[in-house]
Amino acid sequence: MSTPVITAPRSPYARRKTTRGNFELYGWVFMRISGVVLVALIFTHLFVNLLAGEGINAIDFAFVAGKWASLPWRIVDLIMLWLAMMHGTNGVRTIINDYAEKDRTRGILKVLLYSAFVIVVVTGTLVIFTFDPCPAGADPALLADFCKQL
Q1: Which top-rank group of organisms is this from (predicted)?
Q2: What are the residue ranges of helices labelled H in the chain?
Q3: CATH 3.40.50.1110 fits 23-148, yes or no
């Protein structure tokens, strides 16, 4: 029977060779950059939606329709959706890698995670770009002012 070899406590760390490349490094950098951008986008979103106007009582279909009638607001909301989903998915992926012990469990959880990511991003993108601010047959009291002029 052989005795296990215990390395000296102050010996240099021997890094094992990996084939992953720099994916984890890029994920780490992405989390920092996307976090800063998301904080700026979220505070802008909260300021415009809650503080600049009449507060939460003014948020209704007409408010969203008026905001999304402008392409720049749609793009800002799209960037916020995509960044938030990528940031959150990368964070949950890291948690799965850290805590799922079995390869099969890790694989199943990642498939579920990536499926949820695709469903939310595709649905959210479709909603943002197919949203009709002036739907036919809608209650005129709920429509934005520019819809009543048409």
Answers
A1: Bacteria
A2: 23-46, 61-68, 71-99, 103-130, 145-148
A3: no
